[in-house]
Write a structure and sequence with these properties.
Helices cover 70% and strands 3% of the residues. The strands form two sheets. Strands 1-2 form a two-stranded antiparallel sheet.
């Protein structure tokens, strides 16, 4: 009985007996490019809808008096990198794993924070300005922070900063938001409809990105338990410390929520790009999943925060309805202004964003 001779695949380039060299299947690469392009366009549309909440006058107030932006800067490039450094030492992780943790902590805020800021009734003007400023400052602060915190494990020259990716992120934020601001100014009624659709699409898009990332890189999920633990608790620490620092300096509740989101929600896609550019395939096997783990748990934390926020709003409305026979309720914005005026012991803002000294009664 004759056995058929083995045949090489048609696309084989080199054949030697039963051994054949077949080109790498480009399907995953093509899928990755297609999905990245599609998600970038969709994200730009979502940011356009988020821009429909922003008023140019209020945005200029934050830029002219950048107190909130400065607090966010301290959290983004002060608290987060140091926390990453401390966690790496506490859990005694491998050098390459410590580097990817610190890279994650040094990244600027991502666009996801703007979407969740809307759902948490935060200060959208502050959120947009913080995301833009952190992306611009990252061009200088990321290399500085990485030089300071990673020299324990590697040389600063070993990590490549993808300035083009940061630039693309910045453009994909500023251009759609600018168009959204113009739309709100020119067609306010249409802006409200766009915002309602975009806020829902934004949440769905964030979930889709997380699922696609998990599927495309499912081979990277087998990593050290310490990375899982750090990836789980690190977002909680970022959100918590950002919120506490904002309250410590007397910011109102809605801005505390905004600063907490901008602190805890990092640009995980940028961290993944940096690790791919800076490390060998063998090193990526033990650390590449960390940005994905962090991105998943930062979404979990933000989702839980949204649930708690809306539960508290319902409770307040019920209590207010029982006390007020006429059934009138303060809007969220009015309530935030009242909290700010009553609880901030140093300064409070009028409706135009001007700071006033309570004791002297004069504008600063």
């Amino acid at each position: 009985m004759c056995t058929p001779e083995p045949t090489c695949p048609e696309n084989a380039t080199i054949c030697s007996g039963t051994s054949c060299l077949v080109p790498r299947d480009p399907f995953n690469d093509i899928l990755n490019v297609v999905m990245s392009t599609t998600l970038t366009v969709m994200l730009a549309l979502v940011m356009f809808s988020m821009g429909c909440t922003v008023e140019a006058r209020k945005l200029w107030v934050h830029i002219r008096r950048p107190w909130g932006i400065f607090i966010g800067f301290l959290c983004q490039f002060g608290i987060m990198p140091f926390t990453a450094f401390a966690l790496s030492l506490i859990f005694n992780v491998l050098p390459v794993q410590a580097v990817v943790i610190i890279v994650m902590g040094c990244c600027p805020g991502g666009s996801s924070s703007n979407v969740f800021c809307y759902w948490l009734d935060g200060d959208m003007d502050l959120s947009i300005s913080m995301t833009a400023c952190s992306s611009i400052l990252a061009l200088g602060m990321m290399p500085l922070c990485l030089l300071i915190y990673t020299t324990v494990w590697t040389s600063g020259d070993a990590i490549q900063i993808p300035y083009d990716s940061i630039g693309i992120t910045l453009v994909s934020l500023l251009v759609p938001v600018g168009l959204g601001i113009y739309t709100k100014h020119r067609w306010p009624n249409a802006a409200q409809k766009i915002l309602k659709v975009g806020s829902v699409v934004g949440i769905l898009l964030i979930i889709i990105i997380a699922v696609i990332g998990g599927v495309l890189y499912q081979s990277s999920w087998t990593i050290s338990p310490s990375l899982w633990i750090i990836g789980t608790i690190y977002p909680f620490i970022g959100f918590g410390l950002g919120f506490l620092l904002a309250r410590f300096v007397g910011q109102p509740w809605h801005r505390c929520r905004t600063i907490a989101l901008e602190t805890g929600m990092q640009n995980a896609q940028l961290a993944s790009t940096i690790t791919q550019l800076s490390f060998t395939p063998a090193e990526l096997e033990v650390m590449f999943a960390f940005p994905l783990i962090y991105s998943i748990f930062q979404l979990v934390v933000a989702g839980v925060a949204v649930g708690i926020h809306y539960s508290m709003k319902r409770c307040k409305q019920k209590i207010s309805g029982n006390k007020d026979g006429e059934g009138t309720h303060s809007t969220v914005e009015d309530q935030n202004k009242q909290d700010y005026a009553l609880e901030n012991g140093g300064f409070h803002c009028d409706e135009n964003g001007n700071s006033e000294d309570k004791d002297k009664g004069t504008k600063l």
